[in-house]
Design goal:
Layout: H1 10-16, E1 38-42, H2 46-62, E2 66-70, H3 76-81, E3 87-92, H4 93-106, E4 109-114, E5 120-126, H5 129-132, H6 139-144, E6 158-162, H7 171-177, E7 182-186, H8 190-203, E8 209-213, E9 223-225, E10 259-264, H9 267-270, H10 272-280, H11 285-296, H12 302-312, H13 314-325
Parallel strand pairs: 1-2, 6-7
Antiparallel strand pairs: 3-10, 4-10, 5-8, 5-9
Helix pairs in contact: 2-11, 2-12, 10-13, 11-12
The structure holds trimethylamine oxide (TMO).
């Protein structure tokens, strides 16, 4: 059926509803196939918050009902399997690959395709540290400089400032497996990481902290990821793998990780056109870095950032919508 139409007044309505649901712009026969809301889980870092809102707003433009629910970023894979939430927009290989694989094996969740974005999550330092600590980015060089990174709570060991614990980076295990003179201190939030980075760079003080790409950081700070023994499958499960034959986690995170979408396996049957759109949605590094910057640099709320991103990038998302609508 090629009866899909664009609602002429959509532009005005979108403005009026800027902080609520988007007006439906398409009028596809039988859509929404269910009035049940599509439930989108949100986490504690900016690109995921914005990309979730962007996706929800696209569903709303098709006429679907959408709800957002703050969810633990590890527990979400179990919540998807149970159908308690409908999908996940950012499955980072480094942080969530193991939880996602475990859920796939149990059933109830599907791989809804890859974004073009290539991801890395790793220990990171500002560029000025390379003069203070020769040999960086090698982890052995970092370890020789450990005391430089000490704080009163970790001295004489260096402090590695990790992310919130639900990102589950196994940094403690890595420090032990590689025999490093570091202590892991977890920040309570992403913004706590960025506040410490800002304060340290102002003083050119030593800092090594968790960071990732794509992120807004690369637009503002120069710096590099620490190079650990290269990640390989087996590192996280098989003690015999890697330089330490008795311990797991003796490796870095994947340097060229995937970024996937995942969905409840009932999504396709319940909201077929929404599922089709989900499989077409595909963001690259620049898209996600720009979404994060709207929150972390420009200070917008995720909802506002999503509206702005959509208004600036119609050429990107309109073809996905038209494909779902059967228009070209
Ligand atoms: C999952 N994260 C992007 C925060 O590393």
């Amino acid at each position: 059926m090629r009866t899909a139409m664009l609602a002429a007044a959509a532009g005005g309505l979108t403005m009026a509803l800027a902080f609520g649901a988007q007006a439906a712009e398409y009028n596809l026969p039988g859509v929404p196939e269910s009035d049940d809301p599509i439930i989108i889980p949100t986490h504690n870092w900016s690109s995921q918050l914005v990309v979730s809102e962007v996706t929800g707003k696209l569903f709303e433009k098709l006429g679907y009902y959408v709800e957002y629910t703050p969810t633990d970023s590890q527990a979400v894979y179990e919540a998807i399997r149970q159908g308690d939430v409908t999908l996940e927009m950012e499955v980072w290989e480094g942080a969530f690959g193991p939880a996602f694989r475990a859920a796939l094996e149990k059933g109830g969740i599907v791989d809804a395709g890859d974004h073009d974005a290539v991801t890395r999550e790793e220990w990171w330092y500002p560029a000025y540290m390379e003069e203070k600590c020769p040999g960086l980015p090698a982890w052995e060089a970092l370890n020789k400089c450990a005391e430089m990174f000490a704080t009163p709570e970790t001295a004489p060991k260096g402090r590695f400032l990790g992310g919130p614990v639900d990102w589950l980076k196994h940094d403690h295990e890595r420090v032990e497996a590689l025999g490093m003179d570091f202590e892991v201190v977890n920040a309570g939030s992403a913004s706590a990481l960025w506040a410490e980075l800002e304060s340290a760079t102002k003083r050119k003080a030593p800092i090594v902290l968790f960071n990732w790409t794509p992120n807004f950081i690369e637009a503002i700070y120069e710096g590099n990821f620490v190079e650990f023994p290269e990640y390989g499958s087996g590192c996280k499960e098989d003690p015999a793998w890697g330089p330490n034959k008795e311990m797991t986690y003796d490796c870095g995170n994947p340097a060229n990780g995937y970024l996937k979408k995942a969905a409840w396996d009932g999504m396709q049957e319940t909201w077929p056109k929404a599922y089709e759109l989900l499989t077409l949605i595909n963001f690259n590094n620049a898209d996600l870095a720009a979404m994060a910057a709207k929150v972390d640099v420009d200070g917008m709320e995720a909802d506002e950032a999503a509206d702005k991103w959509l208004s600036e990038n119609e050429a990107k998302w309109r073809p996905w919508m038209n494909a779902v609508a059967g228009q070209s």
